[in-house]
């Protein structure tokens, strides 16, 4: 199975929702669409599912042009962010409904519903109605309805976004095993970079109606090909600052500078944007070669066992992410350490020019 | 009893007074009604009710009313369900203006439409049929039903439609087997209001009928003028006219509360 968009655009009124996009997805692993809210992930899914028609371009499934084919005839499944179930049907009828519509024999329907319900631990809930279930169970019902039919593609549009933290982790762990080996293309939209990294597979970064980069999830995390991709695929947001390169030294403002090696050193002198992920800016001195930054702490957050600090150096705001609980005092100067070896250097057109660790 | 609860109690008594008076009158003889003030019937009589249930001109009034009211409710809902779906799900040129215009039909008094309807129905041979009244009442019931149903339908996320299409439901099948059951409370409320407004409407119903489809309200007014003061009989007919509405409202009372919550009733 394969699913492909060829030169697809989507305009609504005078507004462009999707700029010309060509992308293809295959069976095996997760295909992740990562982007902020309103980036166009849901629109891409609707275009692929046939719920919306592209303004131009074509949608291909398994070598067939299905652009004009209605969603009913595409044999696909969809799970929404909101728990969408048929409220007047029992959980059993909900899961059975795609099979009933296909006119499958009663005994087979029962067997397949039972199988799907068991995988998703819905066995005891089959006679209840969706409103009587918890959020997690409702979403599991929706997932069961998606896997019960042997569809060519399953679209998951931020399926875990409305679940609480614990359920989200639990279901996220189960999802890959649940959906692999079914011979279907799995397309998973999320707005959380962390979720994309946990699920692995391949990722397409979506930003304002464009796909800025596509590739293996970890590869594109390690090597964002441009500034936009680096921004999209970073949580907390990546630190970006204008720098000047002269010889083998890079200057940030008047007081800070560091030596670059290999590919970064070979870049022509001039202005660049340096990008560094928050977890390479730490309050304690790391083992790697580092540069000290002094900044005034503005906001601090604790997230699990990680400490996040937003601090200002002159006009620039920086973010530091460190494991462990660190006591920052808001409004006070604090010293942070940045690892130059982990920097990305973006050229003025936004493209990645070099990585600090290209020499490693 | 705290003095605070006296206020609603007095109000309820005030509201029920005319209904009580009507019920009390229906069990009195005309002489007693005209004779003077009495809180309870001095001579209980069931003659008034007996007359209504045995005299065809009386009970056919009820049957006629029920026939055209039912027809109207069915026609109104059949037309309003797809219309409300279109208003809630699609945006099209002038949709908001059309929605408002539908409503302006409610603002004109029925008397305005009585003459054109009378002439039109006489010309096409619909005069004095149940269908004539049922269709005439659609004029104000369809906009009302569209408005109520649109509120309920907009409360259902569009994702439900999308999920159903992806699951393989065709549009008609989705609409009948998934969507309508989902908004059944709204259908109940809309049906109730269609029923009520058609049931209490007198002017069009009277103008568009003569003998065959004569509604109960018309029977009541005519009896008053031709046979002198048959007040007990009229009161009994009045009581029987209230009952269908009371029965219907009992069944949809919870749905109406939901409708109020949605701000559409």
SSE topology:
The complex is a heterodimer of chains A (360) and B (265).
Chain A: E1 2-12, E2 15-26, E3 30-34, H1 41-49, E4 56-61, E5 64-65, E6 76-79, H2 91-102, H3 106-119, H4 135-148, E7 153-157, H5 165-179, E8 185-190, H6 193-199, E9 202-207, E10 210-216, H7 217-222, H8 227-232, E11 239-246, E12 249-252, E13 256-259, H9 262-265, E14 270-276, E15 281-282, E16 291-303, E17 306-313, E18 316-323, E19 333-338, E20 344-346, E21 352-355
Parallel strand pairs in A: 3-8, 3-9, 6-7, 7-8
Antiparallel strand pairs in A: 1-2, 1-4, 4-5, 9-10, 11-12, 11-14, 12-13, 14-20, 15-19, 16-17, 16-19, 17-18, 20-21
Chain B: H1 6-26, H2 30-35, H3 47-54, H4 56-89, H5 95-104, H6 110-124, H7 130-154, H8 158-167, H9 171-182, H10 184-200, H11 203-207, H12 216-226, H13 231-261
Helix pairs in contact in B: 1-13, 3-4, 3-13, 4-7, 4-10, 4-12, 7-10, 8-9, 10-13, 12-13
Side by side, the strands of the main sheet of chain A go: 6-7-8-3-9-10
Secondary-structure element string of chain A: EEEHEEEHHHEHEHEEHHEEEHEEEEEEEE
CATH class of the largest domain in chain A: Alpha Beta
Q: Quickly give the structural class of chain A.
A: alpha+beta
What is Rg of chain A? 24 Å
State the CATH topology of the largest domain in chain A.
Rossmann fold
Structural class of chain B: mainly alpha
Q: Compute the number of strand runs of chain A.
A: 21
CATH class of the largest domain in chain B: Mainly Alpha
Major protein interface = A-B, 23 and 17 residues
CATH fourth-tier homologous superfamily of the largest domain in chain A: P-loop containing nucleotide triphosphate hydrolases
Total count of domains of chain B: 2
Straight-line N-to-C gap of chain B: 34 Å
Low-confidence stretches of chain B: none
CATH architecture assignment of the largest domain in chain A: 3-Layer(aba) Sandwich
């Amino acid at each position: 199975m394969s699913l492909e968009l060829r030169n697809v655009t989507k305009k609504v009124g005078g507004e462009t929702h999707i700029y010309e996009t060509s992308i293809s997805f295959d069976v095996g692993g997760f295909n992740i669409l990562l982007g902020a809210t309103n980036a166009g992930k849901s629109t891409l899914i609707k275009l692929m599912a046939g719920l919306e028609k592209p303004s131009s371009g074509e949608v291909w499934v398994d070598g067939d042009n299905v652009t004009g084919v209605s969603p009913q005839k595409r044999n696909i499944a969809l799970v929404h962010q909101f728990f969408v179930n048929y409220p007047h049907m029992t959980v059993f009828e909900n899961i059975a409904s795609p099979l009933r519509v296909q006119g499958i024999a009663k005994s087979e329907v029962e067997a397949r519903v039972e199988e799907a319900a068991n995988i998703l631990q819905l066995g005891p809930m089959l006679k209840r109605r969706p409103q009587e279930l918890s959020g997690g169970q409702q979403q599991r019902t929706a997932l069961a309805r998606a896997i019960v039919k042997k569809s060519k593609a399953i679209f998951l549009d931020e399926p875990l976004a409305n679940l609480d933290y614990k359920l989200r982790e639990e279901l996220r762990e189960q999802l890959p095993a649940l959906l692999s080996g079914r011979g279907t293309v799995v397309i998973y939209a999320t707005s959380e970079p962390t979720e994309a990294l946990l699920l692995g597979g391949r990722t397409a970064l979506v930003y304002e109606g464009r796909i800025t980069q596509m590739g293996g999830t970890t590869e594109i995390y390690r090597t964002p090909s441009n500034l936009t991709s680096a921004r999209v695929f970073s949580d907390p947001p990546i630190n970006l600052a204008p720098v000047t390169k002269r010889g083998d030294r890079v200057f940030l403002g008047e007081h800070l500078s560091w030596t670059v090696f290999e590919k970064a050193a070979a870049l022509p002198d001039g202005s660049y944007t340096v990008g560094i992920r928050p977890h390479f800016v730490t309050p304690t001195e790391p083992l790697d070669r580092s540069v000290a930054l002094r900044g005034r702490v503005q906001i601090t957050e604790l997230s699990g066992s990680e400490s996040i600090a937003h601090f200002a150096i002159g006009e620039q705001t920086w973010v530091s992410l460190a494991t462990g609980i660190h006591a920052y005092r808001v409004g006070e100067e604090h010293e942070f350490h940045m690892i130059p070896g982990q920097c990305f250097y973006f050229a003025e057109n936004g493209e990645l020019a070099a990585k600090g660790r290209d020499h490693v | 009893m705290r003095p605070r609860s006296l206020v609603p109690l007095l109000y309820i008594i005030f509201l029920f007074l005319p209904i009580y008076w009507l019920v009390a009158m229906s069990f009195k003889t005309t002489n007693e009604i005209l004779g003077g003030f009495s809180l309870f019937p001095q001579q209980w009589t069931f003659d008034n009710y007996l007359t209504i249930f045995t005299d065809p001109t009386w009970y056919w009034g009820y049957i006629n009313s029920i026939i055209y009211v039912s027809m109207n409710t069915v026609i109104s809902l059949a037309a309003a369900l797809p219309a409300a779906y279109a208003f809630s799900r699609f945006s099209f040129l002038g949709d908001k203006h059309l929605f408002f215009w539908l409503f302006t039909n409610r603002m004109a008094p029925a008397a305005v439409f009585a003459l054109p309807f009378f002439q039109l129905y006489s010309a096409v041979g619909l005069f004095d049929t149940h269908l004539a009244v049922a269709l005439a009442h659609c004029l104000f019931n369809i906009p009302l039903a569209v408005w109520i149903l649109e509120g309920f339908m907009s409360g259902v996320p569009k994702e439900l439609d999308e999920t159903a299409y992806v699951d393989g439901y065709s549009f008609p099948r989705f609409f009948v087997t998934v969507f309508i059951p989902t908004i059944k409370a709204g259908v109940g409320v809309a049906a109730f209001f269609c029923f009520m407004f058609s049931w209490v409407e007198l002017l069009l119903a009277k103008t568009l009928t003569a003998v065959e489809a004569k509604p109960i309200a018309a029977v009541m007014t005519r009896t008053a003028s031709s046979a002198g003061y048959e007040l007990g009989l009229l009161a009994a007919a009045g009581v029987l006219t209230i009952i269908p509405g009371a029965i219907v409202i009992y069944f949809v009372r919870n749905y109406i509360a939901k409708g109020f919550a949605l701000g559409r009733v």
